[in-house]
Write a structure and sequence with these properties.
By secondary structure, the protein is an all-alpha fold. The protein folds into two domains: 59 residues; 43 residues. It is built from four helices and no strands. Helix 1 crosses helix 2. The termini are far apart.
C-alpha cells in the first residue's frame, strides 16, 4: 500500500467516525451518547476488518499468496513446454540416452537381454 492510499484510508476512517456521529445525533442521540455510539460502531468495524484479515492470513487466501500460486503455475507450464520442445528436438538415440541417465527409461525385464 502506498503512502497516499494509507492516508486516504485513514481519512476515510476519520470521515466514517464523523459521519456516524452526525447520523447518531440525527437519530436522536445526545452529544456524548452519539459520540460513544459512533466510536463503538467504528471500533466494531475496525475489529471486523482486522479479523477478516487475520482469517485470510491463517487460511492462506491473501492476495500475495494467490498471486504467487498463479505465477508458479504459469512458470511451471512455460518451463514444461520449453523442456518438452527441447526434448522433442533431440534425436531418438539422444532421447533414450537422456531418459536412461535420469532413470526415466523403463528397464527391460530380466532374461530379455
Amino acid at each position: 500500500m502506498t503512502n497516499g492510499r494509507a492516508l486516504l484510508l485513514a481519512l476515510g476512517v476519520f470521515g466514517l467516525g464523523g459521519g456516524g456521529y452526525w447520523l447518531f445525533q440525527a437519530g436522536g442521540f445526545g452529544g456524548f451518547s452519539a459520540g460513544i455510539a459512533a466510536s463503538a460502531l467504528l471500533m466494531v468495524l475496525v475489529l471486523a476488518w482486522t479479523g477478516s484479515y487475520l482469517f485470510r492470513v491463517v487460511t492462506g487466501k491473501m492476495t500475495f499468496i494467490q498471486q504467487r500460486l498463479q505465477y508458479r503455475e504459469a512458470y511451471d507450464a512455460f518451463t514444461t513446454e520449453a523442456l518438452q520442445r527441447k526434448f522433442d528436438a533431440l534425436s531418438p538415440e539422444e532421447q533414450e540416452r537422456l531418459l536412461g541417465e535420469t532413470g526415466q527409461l523403463p528397464e527391460a525385464p530380466q532374461g530379455e537381454a
